[in-house]
Write a structure and sequence with these properties.
Blueprint lengths: L3 E9 L4 E4 L5 E15 L4 E15 H10 L5 E14 L4 E14 L13 H4 L2 H4 L28 E2 L14 E3 L7
Parallel strand pairs: 4-6
Antiparallel strand pairs: 1-3, 1-5, 2-3, 2-8, 3-4, 5-6, 7-8
Amino acid sequence: MTTDTIIITGNVASVPNHYTSRDGVAITRFRLASNLGYFDKKLNKWVETETNFYSVSTYRKLALNAYASLNSGDAVVLSGRLHIRPWQTADKAGTNVDIDVDWMGHDLTLGTARWTRLSAVAANDVGAAAGEPVAPAHVWSEAAAPTDPDQGQFGAAGNAQADFDGAESEPGVRVDDGASVPF
């Protein structure tokens, strides 16, 4: 079976949604907006024509790092497997365009970023083993650091909350909607 691989630039169009599957796999999902356009020589500027939206999924360590690093509006570049799936209900029909990401990063043509390598200790942290996001130490300020040790690095997570696209999560799946994250 062959799959289509895509490399795309765009902006994170939703708050990244992190949860852990029943099998313990960390998953972070978000919407990506990619603007199409062309350079108009007469106007001497770029003209945007339309925006494409993609549902993006990251898994395992990439999911943990994406959740700790991305914010809505961030410019990113990513590569992954493209999945196009038509859907239909009694009232309407549409097409889902999904990308399962292999690698990604911030688009440095549009801004700057500070990269931090996770130490072996942080990568093997108990929270990471349980599928919880591991944020680099510089992310926390004195005022933003969690004070309750029972809440872990990102505070208490909710249960069975709506997924980023409004669909219900699987029963028993922990979902962290990012509300308690200080970045």
